[in-house]
Design goal:
Radius of gyration: 27 Å
Helix content: 55-70%
Strand content: 5-15%
Order of helices and strands: HHHHEEEEHHEEEEHHHHH
Largest sheet: 4 strands, antiparallel
Distance between the termini: 39 Å
Length: 391
């Protein structure tokens, strides 16, 4: 059988492929030309009006303080560090919100399918209410509750030893940092590696025999034992900085402000309502025959969910769940409405002081774009792994 002659690329106008490439090049050229014109026109208008441009302000002293930050910040430090502090505040509330919303949303989503009428009705009412009330309004409601309905700091609630809850926020004990904690952190990392190894073993065992040992409980034990071993090897540092109540205040310990709690509660409860519907739809996408097979094997409802339905539902749950994680991260920008010093709040203050509107907005856009792309990449990686395990 004769081999066909190799395809030759024709650069003639009669070639459909050549015309397609040419049209794309022309369109890209027009887009770049329009962008360059708008950029140069903007710079010229700013020059005529005496408006400075550039990112040189990043290294200048900020001249303002930040009320709540993971990293200590002083007004004499640069705008660049101020943006990093704002980004860390956004990152902190987004990570905690994603974890809490996932747990709450999963429970509510499973509750939507419960055979218990009360649980099913309450779960449905939760979803219907919080999905249909605007997030900004919910943030205002939570802020009112935390700043007006709680007692003052002098009469702070004391639900458990070392914990105080009042209009000033939440005060709680936290460990004083010691060199031994680095060894504990190393033990935690070793535990994560051990969980990864255990997961590989469980996957291989399932592929080889069709059966597999339990994953979650041993994984938790591996992490706890490795961390505890690191803590013991590091000298078992156990000094706690515990808050103490005085006549007019609560001093010591760790604390979070009402603004942080407002944003965290608002984002968690609002996003969990959407995640609940994602989980419910994912479980209902599993063929009913899987339920019948589980019943015939005598599996309890909880084991059926954990071993049969949820693993198969992941392929449906993960993509829309990624969208909810992205929405939660971007919705954290509403924190500026209640005074939480997130990235947008820091940007607004910097913009008002320096007048560099384009630069400040560009920094905010770049940060949110980076966070969104990282979240999407991580979830896509997990989605591919889940698909491989299912096969």
């Amino acid at each position: 059988m004769a081999t066909p002659p190799p395809k030759t690329r024709s650069w003639s106008w009669r070639s459909k492929a050549f015309r397609g490439v040419l049209y794309q090049v022309i369109v890209l050229g027009l887009i770049f030309a329009a962008g360059a014109y708008l950029f140069s026109n903007t710079l010229e208008n700013m020059r005529v009006r005496g408006i400075k441009s550039g990112f040189d302000f990043i290294t200048q002293p900020a001249g303002f303080g930040i009320g709540e930050s993971v990293v200590p910040f002083d007004s004499s430090e640069s705008y660049g560090k101020a943006f990093l502090v704002g980004l860390s505040n956004t990152f902190r509330v987004a990570i905690l919100g994603i974890i809490m919303a996932t747990l709450l949303g999963t429970l509510v989503g499973i509750g939507r399918l419960s055979r218990n009428l009360l649980v099913r009705s309450l779960s449905g009412a939760y979803v219907d209410f919080f999905r249909n009330v605007p997030l900004l309004l919910q943030l205002f409601i939570w802020y009112f509750v935390l700043t007006e309905m709680l007692p003052p700091i002098e009469e702070a609630l004391h639900p458990m030893p070392g914990v105080f809850f009042s209009k000033n926020g939440l005060q709680f004990p936290h460990p004083e940092w010691a060199p031994g904690h680095w060894v504990s952190l190393l033990g935690f990392v070793v535990g994560l590696v051990g969980i990864w190894g255990w997961g590989r073993y469980v996957t291989a065992r399932r592929a080889a025999t069709g059966d597999a040992p339990m994953f979650i409980v041993p994984a938790i034990l591996i992490l706890v034992i490795a961390t505890a071993a690191g803590w013991l090897i590091g000298g078992a540092p156990s000094v706690l900085d515990t808050p103490e109540k005085t006549e007019i205040n609560v001093v010591g310990g760790g604390s979070v402000t009402p603004e942080f709690l407002t944003v965290l509660f608002g984002l968690t409860i609002y996003t969990a309502a959407y995640i609940a519907e994602v989980v419910r739809a994912g479980i209902q996408s599993v063929p009913y025959g899987q339920h019948e097979a589980s019943v015939s094997l005598g599996l309890a409802r909880a084991k059926e969910l954990r071993l049969v339905q949820l693993p198969q539902a992941l392929r449906v749950i993960i993509p829309p769940m990624t969208n909810q994680y992205l929405n939660l991260t971007k919705n954290s920008s509403l924190a500026v409405a209640v005074g939480y010093p997130d990235l947008v709040s820091i940007s607004n203050t910097s913009l008002n002081q320096t007048g560099r509107a384009i630069e400040c907005i560009a920094i905010v856009m770049a940060c949110y774009l980076t966070l969104s792309l990282l979240t999407s990449a991580l979830m896509n990686w997990y989605n591919r792994r889940a698909a491989i395990k299912e096969r």
